[in-house]
């Protein structure tokens, strides 16, 4: 099975030399400035959010990546530093049972949503592609995805 797979790959690459026809040096651009918001607040689709002209009526938290959602919310003053004193008891948990037991639901920053971790979060940024690179293929590398991600 492995040999057949390797032969198929080699055969398809031999027939498609234009797949690797880009020349020039490889450039990497680090994107660090993103906006963050819960999908409980933002009701736009991924396609809408991916439009460079997208404008939101809702506030998005500015974050530096790599950053978890919680780290981004702490950096924006939504939640206190959980490593100081008993501040972790001022941040809702992912467990509804734990939140009820310790009355942490009241600390959710989402209106009418006692658990701010139930729905996914959006990270959004825009970047410019130089005219000289128009039509070229790009590789997006996401280091530090905490759990899983969908890219639109």
Q: So what's the overall shape?
A: elongated
Secondary structure tally: strands: 3
Low-confidence spans: pLDDT under 50, at least 5 residues? 1-19
The number of helical runs is 4
Beta-strand percentage range: 5-15%
Widest sheet, order of strands: 2-1-3
Structural Rg: 21 Å
Tell me the structural class.
alpha+beta
Which range best describes the helical content: under 10%, 10-25%, 25-40%, 40-55%, 55-70% or over 70%? Answer: 10-25%
Query: What is the succession of H and E elements?
Result: HEHEHHE
Count of the separate structural domains: 1
Overall mean confidence score, pLDDT = 83
How would a crystallographer describe the biggest sheet? 3 strands, antiparallel
Could you give the distance between the termini?
33 Å
